[in-house]
TrEMBL record:
It catalyses: ATP + protein L-histidine = ADP + protein N-phospho-L-histidine. GO terms for cellular component: membrane. The chain crosses the membrane at residues 33-53, 65-81, 86-103, 109-128, 135-156, 168-189. Its EC number is 2.7.13.3. This is histidine kinase. It comes from Actinoplanes awajinensis subsp. mycoplanecinus. InterPro entries: DUF7134 (IPR055558), HATPase_C_sf (IPR036890), HATPase_dom (IPR003594), Sensor_HK_TwoCompSys (IPR050482), Sig_transdc_His_kin_sub3_dim/P (IPR011712). It holds the Pfam family DUF7134. Keywords: ATP-binding, Kinase, Membrane, Nucleotide-binding, Phosphoprotein, Transferase, Transmembrane, Transmembrane helix, Two-component regulatory system. PANTHER family: NITRATE/NITRITE SENSOR PROTEIN NARX-RELATED, NITRATE_NITRITE SENSOR PROTEIN NARQ. Residues 320-411 form the Histidine kinase/HSP90-like ATPase domain. One of its GO terms (molecular function) is protein dimerization activity.
Length: 418
């Protein structure tokens, strides 16, 4: 019996609502965004039409109804395509608003009407602008909007505003207050989106690199193990071919069996890269006896001891951890066959509640330089590190070599790749 797995902490409801709202916004397609902007443009046009319908207290100017409608359409309708042409929309809305305010088609006290369109236009403009030309356009639009309110006062020969007009100070600041804040906010959000896109691209590239490294490790373990056994058995068969044909035949059978097993593993690994191929399980704890038997047929006397809970291994250990255990044992016995055979090798796997321990020891004598750290030991150390475990490998005091690894049963850390 194993201890129950710890449950993950629950996510607060407020956090869930925030995540759902964020995902909803991100799922909006271009057509949906255009529909939303079209509705917004209709609302803004209605606001501008109501603003144009207002009459100054002095009763002048008194423009016809079609002029008020045309003004509202020129200011509000471009909002529908603000994401498609942000520069053109910002300039068009600015010019139309400036003319309407300067000619008092929209009275000064109703300036918040076109201000709605200007805020939306320059927010999108700021999010899309990334060059010096954008700053020049913003400054020019701010000046033009302020001039549209100050101009009529100056042309009238006085600086005192009418009873229904804003103060001279507010008129001068109108352009900057309407243009700058939404443009700055849009720029900040645009920068954040660009950074998020850059981070996403970086994560994608890192994931691709990790996947290539994973495939490289798998191919190394499969090919190195297989070629070692094939070379050993081929040399034995070549040695005894004339005096003991039966043993040579046995060596050829082992070579054939090993090659077929390697081809099957390579096919399984490559099949995981195809979306249209049924999932094929990778080697695990249940495949260790066959691995040890194959190594024993190549000159090393390998014995296996596995202390594990009863039942299928997939029920209490993730497949990624099983694969790591299998590859560590495979690489270890391959090194024994390659560098220390004939030798006695003991493989011990102990599966606990939270950890699994692998120990591979042998009593063989290795030639000079054979115990140096190679790609096999590096690969084993990388596998263990990805799972957050510990790894040791080196000569034993009494002779031979030992490999020891300790892995958490719960698998790699969140986001880890094996």
């Amino acid at each position: 019996m194993t201890a129950p797995r710890p449950t993950r902490p629950s996510i607060p409801p407020i956090t869930v609502l925030r995540m759902d709202a964020t995902q909803l916004i991100r799922r909006l397609r271009p057509t949906e965004l255009f529909a939303l902007d079209t509705v917004t443009a209709g609302v803004v046009t209605l606001i501008c039409l109501l603003a144009a319908a207002e009459t100054p207290k002095d009763g002048l100017p008194a423009e016809p109804g079609w002029a008020s409608l045309l003004t509202a359409l020129l200011i509000g309708l471009p909002i529908a395509v603000r994401r498609r042409w942000p520069y053109l929309v910002a300039i068009t809305v600015t010019v139309a608003s400036s003319i309407a305010l300067g000619l008092e088609v929209i009275p000064a006290f109703a300036a918040p009407g076109p201000a709605c369109a200007l805020v939306l236009a320059f927010y999108t403009f700021g999010a899309a602008a990334r060059d010096r030309r954008a700053f020049v356009i913003e400054a020019a639009c701010s000046f033009l909007l302020s001039l549209s309110l100050v101009g009529p006062m100056l042309l009238a020969g006085h600086e005192d505003p009418g009873p229904d007009a804003p103060s001279m100070f507010m008129s001068v600041l109108f352009g900057g207050l309407v243009v700058a804040p939404p443009a700055i906010l849009g720029f900040a959000i645009g920068e954040r989106r660009a950074q998020n896109a850059q981070r996403s691209e970086q994560v994608r590239r890192e994931a691709a690199i990790q996947e290539r490294l994973r495939l490289a490790r798998e191919l190394h373990d499969i090919i190195a193990h297989t070629m070692t056994l094939i070379v050993v058995k081929a040399s034995i068969g070549n040695h005894v071919a004339e005096r003991d044909p039966a043993e040579a035949r046995d060596a050829l059978q082992v070579i054939e069996k090993t090659g077929r097993a390697a081809m099957l593993e390579v096919h399984k690994m490559l099949d995981t890269l195809r979306d249209d191929t049924p999932y094929a399980p990778m080697p695990g704890l249940d495949d260790l006896p066959a691995l040890v038997a194959m190594a024993s047929s190549s000159g090393a006397r390998v014995t296996l001891t596995v202390d594990r809970p009863e039942g299928p291994a997939n029920a209490w250990m993730p497949e990624s951890v099983q694969l790591a255990v299998y590859r560590i044992v495979q690489e270890s016995v391959t090194n024994v066959v390659k560098h220390a055979a004939p030798a006695q090798c003991q493989v011990t796997v102990v599966v606990g509640v939270t950890t699994v321990q692998i120990e591979v020891i042998d009593d063989g004598t290795r030639p000079p330089g054979a115990t140096r750290t190679g790609h096999g030991l590096i690969g084993m150390r990388e596998r263990v590190a990805l799972h957050g475990g510990t790894f040791r490998a080196g000569p034993r005091d009494g002779g031979g070599f030992s490999v020891t690894a300790l892995l958490p049963v719960d698998g790699p850390p969140s986001g880890g790749d094996v």
